[in-house]
Structures are given as C-alpha cells and as structure tokens.
Amino acid sequence: MFKFAAVVALAGALLSGTAVAETAKPTVVLVHGAFADSSSWNGVVEILRKDGFPVVAAANPLRSVSNDAAYVSDVVASIAGPVVLVGHSYGGQVISTAANGHDNVKSLVYVAAFAPDAGESVADLAGKFPGGTLGAALAAPVKLSGGGVDLYIDQAKFHDQFASDVPAEQAALMAAAQRPVTDAALNEKSGEPAWKKLPSWFVYGTGDKNIPAAALAFMAERAGSKRTVVVEGASHVVMVSQPQKVADLIEEAAK
C-alpha cells in the first residue's frame, strides 16, 4: 500500500512539473540596435517582468552582423525553454540571423527594425525608400586602430533624429551614452533570414527618421507579419516612447 501511494505521489509530482513547464512563459530576449544600448528596453522590460515574463536584454556588440548574431545565438542557446527574439533597428538583422538553428525560438518581433532578405544589408534597405536623414545627422567617424570606423549620431542632432518624441533631457542622456556601430556592420550582407521560417510581428512609428516608414512597411509585408502596429508620430525609439504598445505586441507574439 505504501509503495503504491508513493508511486502515485511521485507520478502526481511529475505531472505537476510537466504542467508547470508547459504553461511557463517564454523568455523574451531583447536586442538593441545601433546608437542605443540595453537600457533602451527598460520601459518594456518593466512591463514584461510585471506580466511574468523572464527577460534578457542582450548587450549587442555592434561590430559585425556575423559576430553580433553569433553572440546572440550563444545567449539563446543558454536558455532552457521557448524564446521570443526581439530586435530594434540594426538588431533586426541580428535576430534574423541569430534565430537560425535554434528550435526554441518560437517567434520574432521587429521594433522599428530591419528585416533584410539574403544578400541585403542595412545600408541597402535604408536607402531603398526616400525620407531617411541619418547620414546627415552622423558625427565625424572615429577611426579604429584595427581598421574601419565607428559611427555615432552627432549629440546635437540626436534628439531630433533619433528620439524626437522623448523628453529632451532623457534624449540628451541617451545621446551621451549611445553605443557606436561599425560602418562594416551596416554594410554587411545578410544570410538566409529566420523570418522566412518563423512567425514575425512588427511595430514602428510614422515619425521614424532613421528608417523611413515606407521601408518598414515594405519589410513587414514581405516577411508576412502576423500583425503590424504603426504608431502615429513615434520616433525610431518607439520602445522608449511607447513601451506599453511594444510590450503588448511582444506578449502577443509570445502566445
């Protein structure tokens, strides 16, 4: 009798553990883009964590697509259970590559982000439609001792170019702390993108001056976006100015 009861108790515990595993929420991995850093996700992270989602805001190196994607791929590989990969701006190209080969990545979310096809670069897509003004807003390139250059947005132009719907004082802090991207990263061609195999969601603002809204709409349609949220007047950092809208879309993708 005792042995039977013990077996029943053990079976119940195992089934309970299985049920918990099946209902556990996926981990959301957030990948920032050029001229930003992981803190740009703070508002979104706060909402997701409050709603019970495990979150990792990865520190995107911004050195090259292949290098950055390999790093994010390693982060994904370290996570047990399902993952929702979210990319902002250049981070969209990174997640499009990093998701390949990972069965635990269930969906992709592009936040004012590039979704290149094979053979395309961020620079190619940025110039595909008129309206982008990033080139004129860049500061003088910083030459790197190992070759190549780092690119920054001129701090005096950062608010208007990158974060026009963010309070000026906050934008000034973002400008001072911005992470540079190499020119090589922006011109590196993409491999076969994961959005051809995985469901994707898109959100962007009509006030984006880094990536024209027409380019973002084109990429969302081409990727077969499950739902595209267009935020009237939002800047390139829609996740900073509209964290609830972005978090809501991520949670939709997580379901």
From TrEMBL:
Keywords, in A-Z order: Hydrolase, Signal
Keyword Repeat: no
Entry GO MF terms: hydrolase activity
The UniProt record lists the keyword Cytoplasm: no
Domain AB hydrolase-1: 28-248
Superkingdom, taxonomy of origin: Bacteria
Record's protein name: Alpha/beta hydrolase fold
Source organism (scientific name): Rhizobium leguminosarum bv. trifolii (strain WSM2304)
Biological classification of the source: Bacteria, Pseudomonadati, Pseudomonadota, Alphaproteobacteria, Hyphomicrobiales
